Amino acid sequence: MDQKEAAYMISIYKNKNITKAARELYISQPSLSRYLQNVEQHLGFPLFNRIGNEYLPTYNGQRYLDYASRILQVGNEWEKECLELKNEQRGKLTIALPLMRSSCMIPETFPLFHQKYPEVSLTLFEEAYAISEQLLLTDTVDFAVYNPPEFSKALEYIPLRFEPFVLVCRKGHPIEKLAKIDKQAPYPVIDLADCREESFILHVPEQNSGHVAMKLFEQQNYAPHILLQTHSTQVAISLASSGMGLAFAPETYVHKMQQTLSLSCFCVGSPPAQVQLMAAYRRGKYLPAYAQYYIELLKAL
Where is the HTH lysR-type domain (predicted)? Predict the structure, then answer.
């Protein structure tokens, strides 16, 4: 199996359709069909079951695809390192990050990156909700920027920064009178025990923000009244600003939306709750110098 064969079979697997895969590979559908037939004939077993218009891997096909994926990973990493060995500062960088973080971080970092590496193109996987670990394990992206709810042994993590995890409400909300000033905290501090009667708009527990929020409630030994659960930080903050309830969010997201919404922010917990922003990539993956440089730019924000 060579790089070309691996790329062709992986494309069929991803698209589940010969026509779509051929379009992605810029070859004709009949040519790709013949290529697949030749590979299966050479192997002596089918790689895919044909179910209607879908191509789904057989058991043998899945084992083949596991090796094909590894071949592509090694080949891609070698191409990047080879360019560096030849001191050619060109290539392609792919980063995954939540959509709202992208709007906060990329405009401030990409101009500096492009100035240093004008021949490196940037592709963003802007996820609406949570970052999938699978994106990193399959080398779909070079690295991801997010607050991991838990740490995987299959990934390497580079700390970028800690940021306050704040409680948000509309300006003028009665809980403002309960806040206390703490010189060690960036915002007035609210005792979450004083919010038992309030309604909350929370992230789902599978997301880091939802996980951290529920830990804070556990520390106070009560279950909050959850008005709504959402994947979207923007929805949670918008509803909180309209007076529907209280919400939690990392500080960066709140700053972005404070430009258009009327919000009050508070620290909770002792010490004040924080989330850690990380850059993550597959353990053992080769990161070219330009990827490492972009991570340094993100650290400097």
Answer: 1-58
Q: Could you give the angle at the alpha carbon of 148 between the alpha carbons of 262 and 295, nearest 5°?
A: 90
Among residues 24, 57, 83, the one where a domain terminates is: 83
Grouping H, G, I as helix, E, B as strand and the rest as coil, residue 253 is: helix
Q: What is the structure's pLDDT at 180? A: 94
How close are the terminal C-alpha atoms of the chain, in Å?
Answer: 44
Instruction: Determine the average pLDDT of the residues in 230-239.
Output: 94
Note down the domain range covering 30. 3-83
The residues, any chain, with a CB within 8 Å of residue 110's CB and separated by 6 or more, are 122
Give yes or no: residues 188 and 252 share one domain.
yes
Mean pLDDT of 213-217: 95
Q: Are 176 and 227 in contact (CB under 8 A)?
A: no
CATH of the domain at 181: 3.40.190.290
Residues 26 and 151 in one domain: no
| Full-model pTM | 0.71
CB 176 within 8 A of CB 276: no
Q: What is the pLDDT of residues 97-147, one digit of tens each?
A: 988 899 889 999 999 999 999 989 999 999 866 677 778 888 889 999 998
- Which helix (H) or strand (E) segment is 88 a member of? none
The whole-angstrom separation of Cα 1 and Cα 3 is 7
Strand ranges inside 128-224, DSSP E: 143-146, 155-170, 189-190, 199-203
One-letter amino acid at 87 equals: N
**Distance from C-alpha of 258 to C-alpha of 268, rounded to nearest angstrom:** 19
The reply to whether 167 and 253 lie within a common domain is yes
User: Count of domains in the chain?
Assistant: 3
Whether 267 contacts 251, CB under 8 Å: no
